[in-house]
Amino acid sequence: MGLVLGESLRAWWPEACLGLGSLLAVLLSAFVPAKTVRAVAWAALAASALALWRTTAPTPTDIFYGVIVCDALGLAFRWLALGTVALVLLMVVGAREIEEAYRGEAIGLLLFVGFGLLLLSEANHLLMAYLALELVSLGSYLLVGFLPQRRSAEAALKYLLFGALASGVMLFGMSLLFGLTGELSFPALASSLAGIGSPMREAALLAALLMLVGVAFKISMVPFHLWTPDVYEGAPVAVTAFLSVGPKVAGLALLLRLCEVLQPLWPALAPMVLGLTVLTMTLGNLAALTQTNVKRLLAYSTIAQVGYLLIGFVVQTPAGLQALIVYLTAYLFMNLGLFACVQALVNDTGQESLTVFQGLYRRAPWLALSTALFLLSLAGLPPLFGFIGKFMLFDAAIQTGQGWLAIAAILNSAMAVYYYVNIIRLMYAAPTGATTALRPCLGLRVAAGVCVAAVLGLGLWPSPLLARVQARLSVEGRAYSAIIRP
Amino acid sequence: MNTAAVPLAILSALVLVGALWVVTLHNLFRAALSLGLVFLGIAGLFICLGAEFLALVQLLIYVGAILVLIIFAIMLTNSWQRETLPASRQRLPAALAALALFALLARATWVLAWPAQIPGGATRLKDLGLVLVKTLVLPFEVISLIFVVVVVGAIAVAAPRKGQS
């Protein structure tokens, strides 16, 4: 027993570092100023990243008695989760709307949620997946309510109620599945479901549907997206930025693993998920066209982007999985970069309507330029990173003979160009209100700078990353269809 | 109908009635007390099904802690004597959605023959304890982290701010 735990802990340094760091951060935030907590948080993140860098080889042994699995898929998603937390940390530190006295607690909670994201990316057991999901959800509810304004509390309450309902429905599904098979770990569930007979099969299908509801809520997939705009609008900008990437990353990881478990039932589920994918991107884009609040606009934009990401999932091929991970990387940088720019604007003006972008070109040329880059990348224009990812996704759809899916996605992208370019028009062509120079604080400049470098650099030279993703995700020789098989 | 099913049926009816009261009673305090009835009924169901430990935990945590906490919260917010209407605009759709979910679950599970006991399942207290510190040690530890998050976060969110009166 001691042997297993020792081995497990050795493969688990990234999570251990981040978990201990988050505990230390919340403990310290009661006694010391936020600056010290920030230093602790960076140290924990750096240690975690270093540990993750050193555990590049997938560990074959059962970690913590098979409750989690450290495979290539989990490794990719863990990197994405760590990147999200690091960029959001820069924004939380630079956010003027979060009171200095409570910034330490906000940083500690963010690290905890980051720990949950790492755990969710590698969960290989229903109980572990559920607990990691709750850790992420509860932390997010609290972070959403961090502002003194009433709308922040309202958003947190709305998120909590919707989230509790989704968790409840998901638990219904999980308990039904456990009752049917008597198993909780993913590989055992998969083999048990493979030979399931007729009356049990319908019940398992219902269980699968109920579990998918919980995940669909987390990644704001239509028709479980209703909370997204309200919650995004009420939350602090930095938290909105986190919500638009973090839970999506971990939710998609869980979705991929669940789909692997539910493979015998997938033929019955596929048409529905396919339809919802198209619906998700279309509804997101249509609703985004008329928004006037920048956070609401980005909420609908997130829903649409999740629709594109789901293409990589529904095609069920290794190419689709690689495209999903590449586009998720692109989405992380362009969306968080855009939110860093929005944070700079909100810090300066205290408003969130689209009019704050008016004449930004005169006030802060570099900020306007990077905002424009992120928007164009989200719209999927070459030569930016967003284009590469979208191209791979659409290509994956065409390869499986689902050309109509690619066409629907391309039509949607064309529609999205309108509202992305509208912001660029406001920045460069609209008459300006204020004329004083706007200078974002250092943290936000670093965040936006890193994202610009990634969006431009990986857009122009994508081959090292693509080669790496391709090599890693087929290094186990079987890729997609056998990701979680022992 | 065999005799073993009689207490199960009575307890289930108790839980159902209590649950209906929770969502329909206009007085929050009474709704909270009905929730206690539901928790007690569920503890009884656990006893009937041979899960004594779960029944004990149900009593200790749900009745002893959570219910008391809810009642405290209601009394502290000073709304326990008022007749507060629950959100009544969407009663019918909510009822229909709940009924539909119930019908789906009932239809899917009615025809199944459930195994009497999961092979290798831990029901005795000693086995449960061993599982918690051995195979499920990581989830067990993560639960404590969740508690830390919730406690610290709740205090931070509820603390007075400059922007508030």
Report on this model:
The complex is a heterodimer of chains A (486) and B (165). With 486 residues, chain A is mainly α. Chain A is built from 20 helices and no strands. Chain B is mostly helical and 165 residues long. Chain B contains 6 helices and no strands. In chain B, helix 1 (5-24) runs antiparallel to helix 2 (28-48) and helix 2 (28-48) packs antiparallel against helix 3 (52-76). The longest helix of chain B is centred in the middle third of the chain and has 25 residues, at 52-76. Chain B starts with a helix and ends in a 7-residue tail after the last helix. The model of chain B has no long low-confidence stretch (mean pLDDT 84). At the A-B interface, helix 2, helix 5, helix 6, helix 7 and helix 9 of A face helix 4 and helix 6 of B.
Put the structure in a nutshell.
The complex is a heterodimer of chains A (486) and B (165). Chain A is mostly helical.
**SS summary, helix count of chain B:** 6
Per CATH, the class of the largest domain in chain B reads: Mainly Alpha
Oligomer: heterodimer
Order of H and E elements of chain A: HHHHHHHHHHHHHHHHHHHH
Number of domains of chain A: 2
Tell me the greatest interface: A-B, 50 and 35 residues
What is the rounded distance between the termini of chain B? Answer: 63 Å
Query: Mean pLDDT score of chain A, rounded?
Result: 89
Tally of separate helices of chain A: 20
CATH superfamily of the largest domain in chain B: NADH-ubiquinone/plastoquinone oxidoreductase chain 6, subunit NuoJ
Radius of gyration of chain B over all CA atoms, rounded: 20 Å
Proportion of residues in extended strands of chain A: under 5%
Instruction: Assign a percent range to the helix content of chain A.
Output: over 70%
In the CATH scheme, what's the topology name of the largest domain in chain B? Four Helix Bundle (Hemerythrin (Met), subunit A)
- Total number of domains of chain B: 2
